């Protein structure tokens, strides 16, 4: 019954040290979304939604919105923006749900987050 | 620093999040469940015959109301399913719930089965206390008051 071999959603879980803090990264590959949870506080924290908007003959644009959580940290939106761009460059046009539960929101931390996720990409 | 984590996980570098995945069949449909345990939070995905994420809901217990508050984060139109399930999950666990589900909108039987099966697993995992009066949260919620 619980056969993870034919479970339709691929998911990975890894642990990294970002800014000296233990960080859990969970990624799930759904048919219509990519879900990435990055947490240092053990909670989902801020939920962001990022999607690619394609136009005819124009460069694609990216739309980022905060679904829930902190709206006064522009660097988190930047993080989602960088990740959706990376995803679109490497062949996935699915929207991204990104959950960031970080203990600090410095540029260095978010750069590390992007690095770890891209190095272990699931899309 | 990342290489360390990849190569040999030291004891304190073990994943801190418990992920449970399972599938079950009922009414000619295959259900897939994903449960991720966070600190006082639960991320749950329910898939019915597909690997689509579907609608995304958040349900949070509040101090002011006996029932939990629910918000639709992705999708969640009038016909979407899952909002009430997210509410009940939050009320039964006392935690914040992020629920995504792609259950069909006109199939209460499937919805009831999914909820019953999910609560069964949550009891096994010890995330909810076993209900003393009935084994099925879905069945009780379906009976008219």
Automatic annotation (TrEMBL), chain A:
Coiled coil: none annotated. GO terms for biological process: proteasome assembly. InterPro entries: Proteasome_assmbl_chp_3, Psm_Assembly_Chaperone. It comes from the Eukaryota. This is Proteasome assembly chaperone 3. It comes from Ceratodon purpureus.
From TrEMBL, chain B:
It comes from the Eukaryota. Residues 1-21 are annotated as: Disordered. GO terms for biological process: proteasome assembly. Signal peptide: none annotated. This is Proteasome assembly chaperone 4.
